[in-house]
Design a protein that fits this description.
By secondary structure, the protein is mostly helical. It contains 5 helices and no strands.
């Protein structure tokens, strides 16, 4: 692809300076496809004029145009965003471990407060788990809603 871009870039620049820029797309979205019928027709014995050369170059450059790369970039961004959103699930697991670890330590220090400590632990578990579920919900929204 690099050698192709080294060859095509000067041609694209010269064509872009002489013609409308709406006829060209960036060559970073290039996909090579060869068609036999895409060659410009000219009468036998006719010389190549600058306009004919420009038309021939534009015809060749239009074969490079595609939008598949843009769709692939959008899909990759979705996967990266969903992966970043699911990192919060690991934080939820660490929070739940911390809550129940503190419950065990608190119960070992004062066994008479078992019911009150357990109710606080369940509240901490629910809040930590809710944060993990919110992160998971955002990951699914990124993947399937946008």
């Amino acid at each position: 692809m690099y050698s192709c871009s080294k060859f095509v870039t000067p041609i694209a620049r010269s064509v872009a300076l002489r013609s409308q820029t709406s006829a060209l797309r960036p060559l970073s979205t290039a996909t090579v496809s060869r068609h036999a019928d895409s060659q410009p027709s000219r009468p036998a014995g006719a010389a190549w004029t600058p306009a004919a050369i420009q038309t021939a170059i534009q015809t060749q450059l239009r074969q490079f145009q595609t939008s598949c790369v843009q769709r692939d970039i959008d899909q990759a961004a979705k996967y990266i965003g969903a992966g970043a959103a699911t990192v919060g699930v690991a934080g939820s697991g660490a929070g739940i471990g911390s809550v129940f670890g503190s419950l065990v330590i608190g119960y070992a220090r004062n066994p008479s407060l078992k019911q009150q400590l357990f109710s606080y632990a369940i509240l901490g578990f629910a809040l930590s788990e809710a944060m993990g579920l919110f992160c998971l919900m955002m990951a699914f929204l990124i993947l399937f809603a946008f």
